[in-house]
Specification:
There is one protein chain. The protein is α+β, with helices and mostly antiparallel strands. It has 14 helices and eleven strands. The strands form two sheets. Strands 3, 4, 5, 6, 7, 8, 9, 10 and 11 form a nine-stranded antiparallel β-sheet that branches. Strands 1-2 form a two-stranded antiparallel ribbon. It is elongated, with a radius of gyration of 30 Å.
């Protein structure tokens, strides 16, 4: 939520009472505010650059459907939507096969809108995990173009997706995005607690209710108080969305995502697998040209597969997959990502005219459903344009909050006499030593558990603590006056 919060008391507040001491040591407290203040300040300063990158790249990615429609207008749209009916799907596939020089026919995605093209996907070994997609005009059979795609995504969407997830830096870039997502919820929740604590204990603005003081900043404030108000109040409005982005981003990250997968496995909460074995051996063979393994399904069977799927309730946008080997079934998968979503799947034996197996979205475990919906919303698909606009508002709001956080840091810098400094002073270290022992023990255990579940958070937190400890030691040695030598006798 916040990036760098002001830690000096507001001018209208009375000075805080000194902490009672026992045996020369500060009395321990149950308040975590001083510790949160330091954590929030440094986490904001250090993690904010990563969050800026994530917000900017996410802002670009969220509008890829509109960008694709412009950049790939020819490939994605039919030449002319006439009064005639589309050609049989098998003829469209045959046209794509005739035009495609290499690869193995893998998947066909029928046109999902009157002006859309049909996508015929080929596996090409040289492309690795990517594919070659041929776009066919469903009314004329004309080839509108072909693109190298990544599981249905155009080159532009693929590039922006990779840019957002790891900046095209492979394994090193993965650490950036996972670190940003791992700390986003910490910074957001810490900022929320600090802002609410500050607003609720101020006594100088009795005309404003606590709710008003929390949600709206004081427009009459000037300087750092005004910046702090915009930073904090805007963060409150964003906090739920930021927590959502952090959680959903972590579910499919490399390290935290692996732990999330372990949790789903242990709870038996994964999506059910579709069984595709037991089909009648296909006759006629599948299309194959160039390298690779020939598909076992005959592309001419695709009309039968489509008919069986529609008569069995597989409606809306779908993807039809050819069998990869003899004895395997065709698969038909709903891929409607817009609410209400449709993710049902069936395995079809076109020779026998039967459905061999079926998995319905309604039967998925709750956590599997929640994870799927969260991912679609994170990517901006779930609620269409409204989802995109909400994500854009979150990204822009986060950028504003970060800017105001850094601006506070600048505004709070000492500017008089010998106390001039380039930036504001950080909150005092050692706040953890003032916590009561039970709270400290619980905090350590909880932090360790979170660090295990979110390795990027755990590793960077340990690195920060080590750096802070070394910096504190150096500063103490620097500030400790050197011992003076005794004066010589008789001096």
């Amino acid at each position: 939520m916040s990036v760098a919060t002001d830690v000096s008391p507001p001018t209208e507040e009375p000075a805080a009472a000194p902490i009672a001491r026992t045996g020369g040591q500060p009395a321990r407290t149950w308040s975590v505010v001083p510790l949160l203040t330091r954590l929030h300040f440094y986490a904001g300063i250090l993690v904010a650059p990563l969050l800026v990158i994530a917000a900017l790249t996410g802002l670009l990615f969220v509008f890829t459907p509109q960008l694709d429609s412009i950049v790939y207008d020819k490939e994605l749209h039919a030449a002319r939507v006439g009064p005639g009916l589309p050609k049989p799907l098998s003829e469209q596939v045959a046209a794509a096969i005739a035009a495609h020089p290499t690869g193995t026919f893998s998947t066909v995605i029928p046109a999902s809108a009157p002006d859309a093209t049909t996508k015929v996907v080929f596996m090409v070994p040289e492309l690795g995990e990517k594919q070659e997609t041929v776009y066919v005009d469903p009314y004329t059979g004309e080839i509108r173009g072909q693109l190298v795609t990544w599981w249905g995504s155009t080159p532009l969407t693929t590039w922006l997706d990779d840019f957002h997830r790891h900046l095209h830096l492979d394994d090193i870039g993965v650490l950036y995005s996972e670190t940003a997502a791992s700390w986003l919820w910490v910074v957001a929740l810490g900022g929320l607690i600090l802002w609410c604590n500050r607003q609720w204990r101020i006594r100088g603005e009795k005309r404003r209710s606590r709710v008003e003081a929390t949600l709206l900043y004081d427009t009459a404030a000037k300087g750092v108080r005004r910046t702090r108000g915009m930073h904090g109040a805007t963060g409150v409005w964003l906090v739920v969305g930021l927590l959502f982005l952090s959680a959903t981003g972590l579910t499919w990250s490399d390290y935290a995502g692996a732990n999330f997968k372990l949790a789903l496995d242990s709870l038996d909460a994964n999506r059910p697998e579709l069984v595709t074995t037991g089909a009648t051996a296909a006759t006629g063979g599948g299309h194959h040209s160039g390298g690779g393994t020939a598909a076992a399904g005959d592309p001419a069977q695709v009309d039968t597969v489509l008919h069986i799927a529609r008569t069995n309730g597989i409606t809306g946008p779908i993807e039809i997959g050819a069998p990869a080997e003899d004895g395997a079934a065709w698969t038909v998968v709903q891929n409607d990502n817009v609410w209400p979503v449709h993710f049902d799947k069936i395995a079809v034996d076109p020779v026998a005219g039967t459905v061999l197996h079926r998995t319905d979205y309604a039967d998925w475990p709750f956590l599997a459903k929640l994870s799927a919906l969260g991912i679609q919303a994170h990517m901006g698909y779930l609620f269409g344009l409204a989802n995109q606009l909400l994500l854009a508002a979150l990204a822009i709001g986060l950028l504003c909050v970060i800017f105001w956080g850094y601006r506070m840091w600048w505004q709070r810098r000492p500017t008089r006499g010998e106390r001039r400094a380039p930036v504001g002073t950080p909150p005092a270290r050692g706040a953890w030593r003032k916590l009561r022992v039970p709270l400290l023990i619980v905090g350590i255990l909880v932090t360790a558990a979170i660090g295990w579940a979110l390795p990027a958070f755990g590793v960077t937190l340990v690195a920060f603590l080590l750096f802070d400890a070394v910096a504190g030691l150096i500063r103490r040695r620097r500030d400790t006056p050197a011992p003076t030598s005794p004066a010589p006798a008789g001096a």
